[in-house]
Sequence to fold (292 residues):
Amino acid sequence: MRSLNEINHNTKIVGVIGHPIKHSLSPMMHNYAFNKLDLDYVYLPFDIAAANLKDALRGIVALGIKGFNVTIPHKERIVDFLDELSDGAKIVNAVNTVVNENGKLHGYNTDVEGIFRTLEDYKDELRDSTVSVIGAGGAARSVIYTLINSFNVEKINIINRTTEKAESLKDYFTSKMLFEKIKTYELAPPDVTEILSKSKLIVNASSIGMMPEEDDSPTTIVESFNSNQIVFDLVYNPRKTKFLAIAESQGATILNGLKMFVEQGARAFELWTNEKMPTDRISEILNKEPEL
Fold:
């Protein structure tokens, strides 16, 4: 972060809104990039409870905050309060980046970019495959959209604690993207063990296992995993979640959420500053950074 004597009335403020927010690495990443490129910006975390979202957005506009990232639990609900949406955000119906343009809030979904960059090396393996997505929130929406739009998967299983939300997501993508091979299941191990074991790709798009609840996992049943799978956890803190550790013990290829985190952040950074984030150096630093 810039030193206090460098922050003044000209400094542009950006940040991240969510609840909880204290374990986010976004301030570290963006403030490093601002300093590296000598940009007069500062990035701050704002802990905003769901009930206060609308009021918080009014405050952001009134204060002239340049833009912000959006994380759990606001990615879907914020859509109703924005002035404009990018084409991608409209289709996904979830937003993770907002730009304040002269008092008008413009929403984008840069998660899609991050997901694509994380999985692009496995594009051939994923074509015509069966995929299981755990979660049914804003992140899951971005994952499902990317898998349908960019990876030509054959079938998607949506696994969630409540099937009602999973069914709603299924109906949404069946209608919006005419993708009909979606099934929904309740996240109730061991009932979904066979479903998971037959999936080429398993994505944890929920917050299960995120700090400070790092002892949690969507499933602890080792038979859910095998050496033919790719297991991707969007959680990046801790770097290796319990979910990934179990999958790795069974020979699966594992991917944490750090690359996605950096790539989605880079796109947001560019939207705010029209500059390219130094992603290689940032990835190196974050991989060495102690977990929070």
User: Anything to note?
Assistant: Residues 258-273 form the longest helix (16 residues).
